[in-house]
Design brief:
Blueprint (H helix, E strand, L loop, with lengths): L8 H30 L5 H12 L3 E2 H8 L3 H13 L3 E5 L7 E5 L1 H25 L1 H15 L8
Antiparallel strand pairs: 1-3, 2-3
Helix pairs in contact: 1-5, 2-5
Length: about 150
């Protein structure tokens, strides 16, 4: 196991290369969706909303806030835009009238498919090329990087 406190220049260079690879891969992954969004005056936050509402139809606003890790205030504007453009709809929950359930409209499903479809195709192509073992290793790395409790920041 690698020492987390290894101060060597070689280790720092390796970690820098990993960060740069992630940066460049992410930029490539979001370039086409970002361009499609920009045509409509939308941004990456709108894509995230469309993606998660599309994966979880009937999701409550509070559940979406938890998934995205944002405040209600920061979600309000983008949600209003998406609803105004006819991409997202909110309906009152049948059992608890205080809860709003979100879903994509047909136009929202079409936009989300265009945005995420390109990304899914990229993943499919790379995973097919590298094979299941590399895909599983990538999933483990990403899960650990996303774990906010894994390594203390201070």
């Amino acid at each position: 196991m690698t020492d987390l406190n290894d101060p060597s220049p070689e280790r720092e260079a390796e970690l820098n290369r990993a960060q740069e690879a992630l940066f460049h891969a992410f930029n490539t992954l979001v370039a086409r969706p970002d361009a499609l969004l920009a045509e409509q005056g939308l941004s990456r936050v709108h894509h995230r909303i469309l993606y998660f509402v599309g994966r979880h139809p009937g999701l409550s606003v509070n559940d979406l806030l938890a998934i995205l890790g944002v405040t209600k205030q920061s979600l309000n504007g983008p949600m209003r835009q998406l609803a105004g453009l006819g991409y997202v709809q909110a309906e009152t929950d049948a059992r608890d009238r205080r809860v709003r359930r979100l879903s994509l409209t047909p136009a929202g499903r079409e936009l989300e498919a265009a945005l995420s479809g390109d990304q899914r195709a990229r993943f499919a192509r790379v995973f097919a090329e590298l094979g299941p073992a590399d895909e599983q290793a990538w999933r483990r790395v990403m899960a650990r990087l996303a774990d906010r409790n894994d390594i203390p920041l201070t």
